[in-house]
């Protein structure tokens, strides 16, 4: 059975807001959403759709959006690796090289 580890998006979002000195009101205005919604995402009280995620990340400076995308990529690559390691060798998909 594959294990699922939840990605802590709220923590990552907060980290990016602090590191890049982003303000809810500024990002909300650029993303076309209410500052209160961003606050709920940052507190982990609200889930977002992919469309909302794209609006939010698109409203951030490029370095901040890359920070979020890098954190997510790292998480999912690690999760994929861990799940492959749990599969019996005859069920793993191997490269052709």
Rounded to the nearest angstrom, the distance between the terminal CA atoms is 28 Å
Q: What fraction, in percent, of the residue positions are helical? A: 55-70%
If you compute it from the alpha carbons, what radius of gyration comes out, rounded to the nearest whole angstrom? 17 Å
Order of helices and strands: HHHHH
Low-pLDDT regions: none
* Secondary-structure class: mainly alpha
Count of distinct strands: 0
Q: Would you write up a description of this structure?
A:
With about 100 residues, the protein is an all-alpha fold. It contains 5 helices and no strands. The chain has helices at about 10-20, 25-30, 35-40, 50-60, 60-85. The longest helix is centred in the C-terminal third of the chain and has 25 residues, at about 60-85.
Keyword list:
97 residues, mainly alpha
Topology:
Elements: H1 9-19, H2 24-31, H3 35-42, H4 50-58, H5 62-86
Compact summary:
The protein is an all-alpha fold. It contains five helices and no strands.
């Amino acid at each position: 059975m594959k294990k699922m580890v939840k990605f802590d998006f709220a923590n990552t979002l907060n980290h990016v807001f602090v590191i890049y000195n982003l303000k809810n009101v500024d990002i909300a205005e650029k993303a076309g959403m209410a500052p209160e919604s961003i606050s709920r995402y940052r507190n982990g009280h609200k889930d977002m759709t992919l469309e909302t995620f794209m609006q939010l990340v698109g409203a951030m400076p490029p370095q901040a959006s890359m920070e979020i995308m890098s954190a997510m990529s790292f998480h999912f690559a690690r999760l994929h690796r861990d799940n492959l390691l749990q599969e019996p060798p005859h069920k793993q998909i191997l490269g052709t090289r």
